[in-house]
Amino acid sequence: MTDTGTDAGQEGRRPPSSRAGATGGGDPVGPDGGTRWLDDEERAAWLANSAIMISLPAALDARMQRESGMTFFEYMVLSVLSEQPAHTLQMSDLAARTSASLSRLSHVVGRLEKRGLLSRARLPGSGRRTSASLSAAGSAAVVAAAPGHVAAVREYLIDGLGPGELAALRRIGTAVDAAVNRRTPDPGGAPRAPAATSVDTGP
User: Fold this and answer.
1) What is the three-class DSSP state of 121?
2) CB-CB contact of 95 with 185 (8 Å)
3) Using CA atoms, how far apart are residues 2 and 5, in angstroms rounded to an integer?
4) How far is the C-alpha of 123 from the C-alpha of 128, rounded, in Å?
5) The dihedral of CA 58, 178, 164, 150: what is its sign?
6) Per-residue DSSP letter, 11
7) pLDDT tens digits for range 38-87
8) Is residue 38 within 8 Å of 12, Cβ to Cβ?
9) Are 149 and 64 in contact (CB under 8 A)?
10) Contact assessment for residue 12 and residue 37, using Cβ atoms and an 8 Å cutoff
C-alpha cells in the first residue's frame, strides 16, 4: 500500500531490525515489548481490508458528491431518517444508527439543516434531548440519490462477491463492529450500533 504513508512496522510486520524475523508467529507475548506481530497470512488479510477501509469510502464519497451533491455519510443520515415512521429520530438514536459520534453527527446535521433537508427540535422533558426530522426536500433528495448509491455499492462491492463471500463479509463486518464498539465507547454517550442497513437497499 504505497499510497497510505505507512511503513512495514505500521502495517503489522515486525520491523526488519528485530532479530526474531518478520512474522512473530502470533505469540501472545513477544520478546520486544509484547507486540504480537502479524504473520504473512494475517498481514495480507489486513492490507486487503485496509484497502477497503481507505478506498471504498473515498470512492463512494466522490461518486455521490458528483452525482447527488452529498457525501456518503450525509446520505446515510437522510436515509435512516427516511426509514422512520414519522421521518423523525432522536439525535442519540440517529448517531447509533449511523455509527457516528454525536459531535460528528451534530456538525453534519447542522450542514443538512442549512440546506433545508432536515430540521431539529428540542424534545420536552428533562435533559437536552434533540430530534432530527427529514423535510420534504430531504425525502426527495434521498429518493433521487438512492439509485446511484445502490449502483455504486453493487459495482464496488456486492456484485464482485459470491453468496458465500457475502455471508462471510457480513460476519466479518459484524465482528469488527462489535470489537471496535466494545473497546472505544462513544464519548457522546450514544449506544453504538451497526451502520445503517440501507447502504444496499435504498430508502
Assistant:
1) strand
2) no
3) 7
4) 8
5) negative
6) T
7) 999 999 999 999 988 899 999 999 999 999 999 999 999 999 999 998 99
8) yes
9) yes
10) yes
* Interior angle at CA 186, CA 64 and CA 102, nearest 5: 55
Nearest to 49 by CA among 186, 184, 188, 172: 172
Contact yes or no for 115/70 (Cβ under 8 A):
no
Which is nearest to 133 in space by CA: 145, 146, 121, 115?
A: 121
DSSP H helical ranges for the chain: 40-68, 72-82, 91-97, 102-114, 136-156, 163-183
Which of 55, 91, 70 minimizes the C-alpha distance to 142? Answer: 70
Task: Please state the length of the chain.
Answer: 203
Contact (CB, 8 A) for 158 and 72: no
The C-alpha cell of 49 is what?
481490508
Q: What is the DSSP string of 28-51?
A: SS-TTTT-----HHHHHHHHHHHH
* Cell numbers linked to 160: 464482485
pTM of the model: 0.72
Q: Is the dihedral of CA 58, 61, 64, 66 positive or negative?
A: negative
